[in-house]
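During the no-cost extension, the postdoctoral fellow (Dr. R.K.) reprocessed legacy sequence entries with the updated structure-token encoder. One reprocessed record is reproduced below for audit purposes.
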Amino acid sequence: MTSFLQQRPSPKLSLIVAVALLLMAGITLAPRQLRADQTAPSYTCVATTGMVADIARSIAGENGEITGLLGEGVDPHLYKLTRSDMAQLMRADAVFYSGLLLEGKMSDAFIRIAGSGKPVFAVTEIIDEQYLLEPEQFQGHFDPHVWMDPTAWSRCAAVVADKLATRIDSANAEQYEANLKKYQEGLAELDEYVELIIGTIPEDRRVLITAHDAFNYFGRRYGLEVMGIMGISTESEAGVREIERLVDILVEQQIPAVFVETTVPDRSVKALIAGARARGHEVVIGGSLFSDAMGAPGTYEGTYIGMIDHNATIIARALGGSAPARGMQGMLTGDGAHGEGN
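Re-encoded structure tokens follow.
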């Protein structure tokens, strides 16, 4: 964990994010000491996305109460904080967010909250440039969908463990280190499973086409060519030329399936399918993937590991690979049985 924490944020971050991180790093509370009369949970934290909340809950355990701000199916690219959200953020002892402009419309609020003296942390703040992707169409901004690579997300978990241990609750630092180790072991097991099943997809079918560019880290890690109809942010519009280009690829390479996402409208994906059909190639929707939000709370898919297990299992089976219908742990409850796999 120490080696991760010694890394510095990338110098290519936008000016807004750089200023925000400086404010957040400089205006934080001293390590929080527990009161003798205090019962667990001893502190409260608000996390923006479900993926960040999953890390925080796993590391904090029973010591802290973690509230996820954005629920199932909510797009963090477009979300605007409400008054009740702001009240909740201000009441919390600390705030964790993903960063790299994922929560773009919340950036000003994070700066104001940090300026009030509250600890505010981006979990991606120590990810070195070598682990980040910078798409051509977003020069100067990194792809924020880091959680799509479990090995990179493991580094983000180290940030949460460090902040809880050094800024929020130093009395339980050893427990946070132990919880981090356990969490990272689970991510390593997940990574091995995904690598195995994606490797069963025939090489000429390793093309992942989805509603928007949320899967670039996933593709880099597991050897898939990834194409999104929209750009990195769901604010971008899918143009006619881009639809036509992707239809050409579907037809020429005989790709059997494309994928919708739970936080993005499916009209552009359906346009792809119609375009391919008009040219004599039948394409199916291979399944609905979790991109910017996890599944329903209380379900396996509502955990980070379940989210990635779901995605990988559906992708492998729909593109002609082999994967257990119910995933790595036999716990998938959704459409994991889609596709051609065994």
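The domain at 2-189 is CATH 3.40.50.1980 (Rossmann fold). The longest strand covers residues 207-212. The remaining legacy entries will be reprocessed before the final report is submitted.
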